[in-house]
């Protein structure tokens, strides 16, 4: 009987230890920050509770040791293979998140230590770099078309750019070079006529003198 009692106590202790090992506890949960197929940030929580207890998972973004915002809250039923929950979150590099687990009256605590994101953001995350996405780059249609550039006809012509020639108030033709020389020497078209008149006056004067002397001689002879 004594041997049977010892064997029963040993079996009960083994079953108790096995039961405690299979019970839901915080060590069954883990969290990791990653990126999905589209390059967007995610936080994935895995529950490996083989007892299949339903648990509520809450994820908080931390700032200076306090909750800044609630990222999301979901329920999960653990499996020995691991059941996962995924939260969409555009996390910044080296940010911290608090992951809280609550499963009935068994677990009500955080995963420790807090989740720290990688040092590089996801490629599809806007926090990775300050460069604009392809949709923000100018489209070919935004560049000036050939029709918007000034055509050759719109440029000022040479005739409009040259200054008009200066004109004098006198519309009479300018004297030729030969005329100006004649005016300076006195050789114009009236010279022959004046010479003819002068010659005629000389002849008239000479005739008058001749006839006057003749009459004076006739009067003396009488």
Automatic annotation (TrEMBL):
Name by which UniProt lists this protein: LAETG motif-containing sortase-dependent surface protein
Biased composition (Polar residues): 182-191
Lineage per the UniProt record: Bacteria, Bacillati, Actinomycetota, Actinomycetes, Kitasatosporales
Residues spanning the membrane: 193-213
Region annotation (Disordered) ranges: 112-191
Keywords per UniProt: Membrane, Signal, Transmembrane, Transmembrane helix
Signal peptide: 1-23
Biased composition (Low complexity): 123-168
């Amino acid at each position: 009987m004594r041997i049977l009692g010892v064997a029963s106590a040993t079996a009960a202790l083994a079953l108790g230890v096995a039961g405690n090992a299979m019970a839901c506890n915080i060590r069954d949960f883990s969290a990791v920050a990653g990126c999905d197929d589209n390059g967007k940030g995610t936080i994935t929580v895995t529950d490996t509770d083989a007892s299949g207890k339903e648990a509520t998972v809450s994820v908080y973004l931390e700032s200076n040791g306090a909750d800044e915002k609630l990222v999301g809250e979901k329920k999960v039923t653990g499996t020995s293979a691991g059941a996962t929950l995924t939260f969409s979150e555009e996390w910044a590099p080296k940010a911290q998140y608090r992951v809280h687990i609550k499963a009935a009256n068994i677990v009500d605590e955080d995963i420790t230590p807090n989740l720290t994101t990688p040092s590089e953001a996801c490629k599809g995350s806007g926090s990775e770099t300050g460069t604009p996405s392809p949709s923000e780059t100018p489209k070919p249609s935004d560049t000036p078309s050939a029709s918007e550039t000034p055509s050759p006809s719109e440029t000022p012509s040479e005739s409009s750019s040259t200054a008009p020639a200066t004109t004098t108030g006198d519309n009479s033709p300018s004297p030729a070079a030969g005329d100006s020389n004649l005016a300076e020497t006195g050789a114009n078209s009236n010279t022959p006529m004046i010479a003819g008149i002068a010659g005629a006056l000389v002849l008239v004067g000479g005739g008058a003198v001749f006839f006057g002397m003749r009459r004076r001689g006739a009067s003396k002879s009488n």
